[in-house]
Amino acid sequence: MSTTRQPRPGDLGPEPDAAEASSAPSGVRVRTLALSGASGVVPLSRDFTRQALHDWGWLPASAADRRAAAEDVLLVVSELVTNACLHAEGPERLRVTCTAKVLRLEVTDRGAGQPAPRTPHRAGRPGGHGMFIVQRLCLDWGVTRTPGTTGKTVWAELAAPPM
What are the counts of helices (DSSP H) followed by strands (DSSP E) for the chain? Predict the structure, then answer.
């Protein structure tokens, strides 16, 4: 898994403007939640994402693999938002984008740091498991920075369950 891979042509791409839902390519579903200044951002983000998954037909899950896929998405959202709270001056925005094959989570924050799984990973040690979990559950993940601005967007992509 990479932490610095630049977006490739055809990737879901950088943050669009407020009209993203209406301007998204056909078949791409997008939801954005402003988190700057909000309290309880981790459960708020999970609830927001759970509602998107429900609206997009992932939930209620009719089979165990679909239920597991939805739970993985919610766990990754929790980890990314928690990391922004703990290590990056708090999250500013959560963006959830879904195509037929990939669900992409993006958490934008004000931090300058670079997230990375702790190495070596020690399962018995408290804390420090967030990016290891993200790395294990996701197809890919990384960081996007906009030159000349502070902060970053940490993104993670998960496979969409079979319909």
Answer: 4, 5
Q: 17: buried, middle or exposed (CB in 10 Å: 19+, 13-18, 0-12)? A: exposed
Question: What single-letter amino acid sits at 72?
Answer: D
- 7 in a structural domain: no
pLDDT digits (tens, 9 = 90+) for 85-137: 999 999 999 999 999 999 999 999 999 888 877 666 666 666 677 888 999 99
Residue 101 maps to a domain: yes
- For the entire predicted model, the pTM comes to 0.82
Task: Report yes or no: 77 and 130 within 8 Å, Cβ to Cβ.
Answer: no
Please say whether the dihedral angle defined by the alpha carbons of residues 135, 137, 142 and 144, taken in this order, is positive or negative: negative
**Residue 19, domain member (yes or no):** no
The string over 62-81, giving b where at least 16 C-beta atoms fall within 10 Å of a residue's C-beta and e elsewhere, is eeeebeebbebbbbbbbbbb
In a domain, 117, yes or no: yes
Q: How many CA atoms lie within 13 A of 151 on its CB side?
A: 15
Domain extent, residue 120, equals: 29-159
Nearest to 161 by CA among 51, 62, 35: 62
